[in-house]
Specification:
By secondary structure, this protein is α+β, with helices and mostly antiparallel strands. The chain has a single domain, classed as Creatine Kinase, Chain A, domain 2. Helix content is 45%, strand content 15%. α8 crosses α11. It holds the Pfam family GCS2. Keywords: ATP-binding, Ligase, Nucleotide-binding. InterPro entries: GCL_type2/YbdK_subfam, GCS2, Gln_synth/guanido_kin_cat_dom, YbdK.
Length: 391
């Protein structure tokens, strides 16, 4: 059994896995924003991440904040450890604003959505590295299909023993985040009928999808031991749940959201994630027992949000109460308003309601396709322009 010290794992002689959670004393924030690379003329994906990194050498404010990903058609902008949403957005803006002129010089544009509407997976190239090659070797056809992009939001938690209760309670709001961020309605030239095709694509990978709802950290350690012992994973980072602990960072990592096309909506989604996690953690710290949805309701809510987006009727509690997700968002934003004031993201949290009013990305993409008679190049144009307009 291998050690994974980067993720804070120790293996005892008795064979028991211990996972050290390096708690964050403050509710810090970190954001990872995946972006596709599209050709300026054809609007198809281009496998030119290596060329972009080479051209960007010496021009980025912090080269460590731009990462390569599984495929060479993708780059990822990441923040440092931030205190507020505004700080995180400023961090991302600085990186992306430096990348855009470099991409311009290569006739590339940055593309922020959950999927590309017409690119073929057969022409995409893998980033060099054993980790990625082994993923594709194991997952085969499904792994090669992963033309998907998302946003990951990390929120710092102080106590290991509060992580699992917060994670399980956060799943009640899974469909809210999925519906707001849904941006992947069109796949391989076809409207799938789903608001987020990405959500259902990604869960085909082993260890991806919804997390198990463990009550204690010890149960999570036992699960990890089983996964390592049976060879399902070689390291903890291969647990690719939609919401997962990041023990080495002392955070809870929310990976629910589809790719996002602009900084304004990214700020709103980040604020909602930040407020939800902090609110739930504070309630656990006060001794409150958080309500948790049964796993079958969580699973159904994920499907409903992926299928219907902002028109989804979601299940709210174990008694099977239901409500239109946009109606519930209005009350949720109001309830979290005091938390947002303390976290200095009140304006960004109100952006959730503005997003609903404007329409989510999947709705805007469909509107462009309908207006142009199904012109998917025009759809890519619209997504690219939203990012440029937000800088």
């Amino acid at each position: 059994m291998s050690l994974d010290t980067r993720w804070g794992v120790a293996v005892w002689n008795a064979g028991r896995v211990r996972i050290d959670f390096r708690g964050s004393p403050d509710p810090t924030l970190g954001v990872e924003w995946e972006l596709g690379l599209v050709d300026r003329r054809s609007r198809d994906l281009r496998n030119d991440a290596d060329e972009l990194f080479a051209a960007a050498a010496g021009r980025l404010p912090d080269p460590a904040k731009l990462h390569k990903e599984l495929l060479r058609n993708t780059v990822e902008a990441v923040t440092g450890v931030c205190r507020t949403v505004a700080e995180a957005m400023g961090d991302l803006r600085a990186t992306v604003e430096a990348v855009v002129p470099v991409a311009d010089g290569l006739d590339l544009d940055l593309y922020g959505a959950g999927t590309h509407p017409f690119a073929s997976w057969t022409t995409q190239q893998l980033t060099e590295g054993h980790r990625y090659a082994e993923l594709i070797n194991r997952t085969q056809w499904w792994g090669r299909q992963m033309l998907i992009w998302g946003v990951h939001v990390h929120v710092g938690l102080p106590e290991r023993d509060r992580v699992m209760p917060v994670l399980s309670a956060l799943l009640t709001y899974y469909p809210h985040l999925q519906a707001l961020s849904a941006s992947s309605p069109i796949w391989a030239g076809t409207d799938t009928g789903y608001a987020s095709n990405r959500a259902l694509m990604f869960q085909q990978l082993p260890t991806a999808g919804l997390p198990f709802q463990f009550q204690t950290w010890a149960e999570f350690e036992s699960f990890a031991q089983d996964q390592l012992t049976t060879g399902v994973i070689d390291e903890l980072s291969e647990i690719r749940w939609d919401v997962r602990p990041a023990p080495h960072l002392g955070t809870l990592e929310n990976r629910v959201c589809d790719g996002v096309s602009n900084l304004t909506e990214l700020a709103a989604l980040t604020a909602l994630c930040h407020c939800l996690v902090v609110d739930l953690d504070e309630r656990v710290a006060r001794g409150e027992r958080l309500a948790v949805l049964p796993p079958w309701h969580v699973q159904e809510n994920k499907w409903r949000a992926a299928r219907y987006g902002l028109d989804a009727i979601v299940i709210l509690d174990a008694d099977s109460s239901e409500r239109l997700v946009t109606d519930d968002l209005v009350d949720l934003v109001a309830r979290l308003a005091p938390v947002a004031e303390r976290l200095e993201c009140a304006e960004e949290l109100q952006g959730v309601l503005a997003l609903v009013e404007r329409g989510a990305s999947y709705q805007r993409q469909r509107a462009v396709a309908e207006r142009t008679g199904g012109d998917l190049v025009a759809v890519v144009d619209s997504v690219v322009q939203e990012l440029r307009d937000s800088l």
